[in-house]
Amino acid sequence: MDIVSPVLDIASRICSCVGDRADRLRRLPQNVISLRAEKEKLNNVYKDVKERVEREENLEKKRTHVVGGWMERVEAMEIEVNKLLESCDEENQKKCFGTCCPRNCRPSYKLAKMVPEKIDAVAELQSEGSNFQEVAVPLPSPLVIERPLEEKPVVGLDSPFLEVWRLLQDKQVGSIGIYGMGGVGKTTLLTKINNKFLQSRFKAFDIVIWVVVSRPTNLERVQETFLDRLDIPDDRWKGKAEDRKAKEIRRVLKTKKFVLLLDDIWEPLDLVRVGIPPVGDGNESKIVFTTRSADVCGGMAAQKSIKVECLEEKEALSLFQAKVGEDTLNSHPDIPKLAEMVAKECKGLPLALIVIARAMASAKTPEEWERNLQKLRLYPKDVAGTENDLFSVLAFSYDYLPDEATKSCFLYCSLFPEDDQIPPEHLIQLWIGEGFLDEYDDIQEARNQGGKIIQMLKHACLLEVGTGPFSIDGEYLKMHDVIRDMALWLACEKGKKKNKFVVKDGVGLISAQEVQKWKDAHKIALWNETSIEKLREPPRFPNTETIIGRMPRLRFPSGFFTNMSVIRVLDFSKVEIRKLPAEIGNLATLQYLNLSGIMIEYLPIELKNLKKLRFLMLDQLFSLALLPNQMVSSLSSLQLFSMKFFSSPSSADEIMLLEELEQLEHINDISIMLTSIESIQRLFKSHKLRRSTTFLQLEGCWGMNQVQLVSPSCIKELVLDKCYELEEVKIIHFEKQAVPSKFPNPQCCFNNLLSVRIKGCKKLLNLNWLIHAPKLQYLQIEHSGIIEKVIEDERSEGSEIESGLSVFSRLIYLTLIDLPKLESIYEQPLPFPSLRQIIVRDCPRLKKLPFDSSICMSKKLENIEGQQEWWDGLEWNDQTLMHNLTPIFSTPLEAYKMLKAPNPFHPITSADNGNLLQFPPYSS
User: Fold this and answer.
1) Taking a C-beta distance cutoff of 8 angstroms, is the pair 160, 306 a contact?
2) pLDDT tens, residue by residue, 12-70
3) Predicted confidence (pLDDT) at residue 86 exceeds the cutoff of 50
4) Which of 104, 208, 350, 602 is the most exposed place for a label (fewest CB within 10 A)?
């Protein structure tokens, strides 16, 4: 028994071992199948993760190290599994398993042991990849964002620039103040410093942050600048109080060596409240700021203060000559000497030199120069106070304006807040309402003249190009703060009547006592966080011609409108007004009324008494129930009526409104939204309404499968929004002969059409009719699923486009979003001489851009925006063209970081109506 038991035990172990191996071999075929299945599952998880990573990387993020490592392990695992499966297939071919017994079990057993291990390893990778909550993180902010230098050449700033740059490298200096009179070049100097960090090998800092402080100081606006640059998560910022935001800014900045560039400080800024950590205590961070006052340098505890002086005579003359231009300087031998004398009168102030030089640029005779030099010398040279010295010089440019209308238009710009971006079309409309352009009976002629005045003011350097989007009437405008102060000084009769123009921006609560002092005011403009305390009695505004109220809330006391005997303009747009007092109907002199964006439900019927009213704007009245019956038709002087982007009324209400508009004798500018076929038919049946409609929005229009546009047309802006059943657009000549939109006809030309926006027209196949709009500047097409070609090239079918009709030659902005079937914009290459920006998103079939080689020569194209995958998949006939355009391509996130203001083609959801931001930017 003692011998038998060990023997039996050994035999049992051998049988168990042999049985286990046999079992492994028997399960090998099924395990191979399982391994292939698990490999496929892992491959799908890998693809999903990779697509998520690529999407995030297109948004300027980088994959996490965990995800990157996982992807590398998956790729390595795929190689290993493929080799293992190949070995299994080879053994199967040798009958190592299956129906026949193996000739050599050892390799098969080795495989049978490895396959289950790989199945477990693959499953573990699957599980890990399926549970990634985050695959990528934002890239760190760039060290510095380049800022444009508005004036070139930059003259006379070398010395202060080198001094500031030296101090930035001095570890003992933390804060630097740059001060000097307005227009002396402080912002230009700060811009040079900012941009130097792009070129310098001096890498001592982690980030450079630019902040425009301006006046009045707005702490929230300053903090928001840090949000953009420091990539603070939304959950740590949105809805937080000022002190919590400051704490978050401080938390991030404490981890960095930063340079903070603060431009245009008017009073000491509380850096602790903003959230900026102390500098100069060994952390090596720096603060550099500009101000007009040496006192602010003291209040900001600047360790070093640098004054920017006016230019020396030689530098001043060099700048002046550059701005006057060689053509004018060489037009007569005496002019260079006269130019030297004029430059001396500017006292070396760069802004004055630039303004006066441009005013003199068109003077080609010595006599003109002598007369203008004499005018310049009539102004006092040594008026007490820096500002008056500056204004005395700058006022020469004002006096050089050709007529009183132009001067009034210029002074009017000072009613807008400092640093405000002014839409040109809105400004011109106000000028017309004020009566500055009354010599023009036709509104369009007045607008044209307004455009000429804007150009004149820009050329004289009294207005500047703003940073807002380009609108259909030109680029946004702004006034330099010094010019604006000078304009207000002039409007108030050189400071003698300080309340003649009253402008309040973000000043908080205004007392009733101060309001009573406005009885002599001619113009009143209240902006942003400004409010008036409750008035016990109606204010008296016997001389007031204009009231612009753009504050959050406005409550009218009883009798508010009773003492306005000469009022011409009331603009309460975007103010929270829920009720208008009936006495507004007693304003017999009122000519301009803008109530756009207010919260009112009912308009007082007394508005019908405004017999001199020429402009009525009622846009974005989403709470308005309906217009009082016969109100519009009673406005016998009405020339412009605008009612767009509002809650849709009934078809009967729309038709009633159109009939009332048709009764108006002087109406010649209508902006309107229609939502029914009956309303559209009523509009197009009326010659008067057709010729007066400049903005037309068709929204919904159930049952409408065709739009027939009547030519010639006065429409400047056309919006087709959610016309789900629309299939075709046709052109009807004024002789009522239908012309299919794809066949060009020079007589059916929409010369006035500048802007077209198509959104959600799911059955619309193409936009061939756009070839009838040679002046089209803006084109936006979104969410229109079956469009394959924007414009079909019909020449192959025998339909020639006349050479005089240039397709897209005036197009400035093109936006194509969510067009899954779009394959072509235009079949043939086009020069696009005016194009500045093209945005393409979610158009996977668009593989070619219709650019010819001249697109690079025009130097107008600034940006091509789209997903990286789309850009990488584009097909190019000319590789040189691709290389030339690549530097201006950007992804949506890159474009967002570059933009300082919303672009009219970036889809931004409106909280009011759920629609996209107005396109193009309409008057507010």
Assistant:
1) yes
2) 544 444 455 667 677 778 888 888 888 898 899 999 999 988 888 887 678 888 988 99
3) yes
4) 104
User: What are the tokens at 394?
Assistant: 């700058």
Report the alpha-carbon angle 88-92-94, nearest 5: 120
| Digit-coded pLDDT (tens) for 553-589 | 777 777 788 889 999 999 998 888 888 889 999 999 9
DSSP string of 638-691? --EEEE-SS----HHHHHHHHHHHHT-SS--EEEEEE-SHHHHHHHHH-HHHHH
**160: preceding bond cis by omega (within 30 degrees):** no
Q: Indicate the DSSP class of residue 553.
A: B
| pLDDT for res 483 | 79
* DSSP character at residue 139: P
Q: Are 37 and 43 in contact (CB under 8 A)?
A: no
3-state helix vs strand vs coil in the chain, percent to 5: 40, 15, 45
Inter-CA distances, 912 with 239, 646, 917, 924, Å:
20, 10, 10, 14
Q: So what's the pLDDT on residue 105?
A: 58
Which residues contact residue 417 at a Cβ distance below 8 angstroms, ignoring those fewer than 6 apart?
Answer: 503, 505, 506, 527, 528
CA distance 252 to 232: 8
pTM, two decimals, is 0.64
pLDDT in tens, 850-863: 888 877 766 788 89
* d(C-alpha 857, C-alpha 331), whole Å: 32
For range 222-245, the mean pLDDT: 86
State the pLDDT confidence band at 218, using cuts at 50, 70 and 90. confident
Helix (H) or strand (E) run with residue 388 in it: helix 386-399
Distance CA 769, CA 791 (A): 8
Question: What is the model's pLDDT at position 209?
Answer: 92
CA max distance for the chain:
140
Mean pLDDT rounded to a whole number for the chain: 82
∠ CA(296), CA(298), CA(299), 5° rounding?
Answer: 60
Tokens 């969510």, located at residue: 818
Q: How far apart are CA 245 and CA 546, in angstroms?
A: 39
Strands 889-890 and 863-866 come out as parallel
806 secondary structure, DSSP code: -
The answer to whether 729 and 763 have CB atoms below 8 angstroms apart is no
The whole-number pLDDT of residue 634 equals: 96
DSSP string, 863-877: EEEE-HHHHHT---S
Return the closest-CA partner of residue 151 out of 102, 189, 109, 103. 189
Tokens of 14: 């051998």
pLDDT for 60: 67
Instruction: Please report how the helices 424-434 and 404-412 are oriented relative to each other, as an axis angle in degrees rounded to 10.
Output: 120
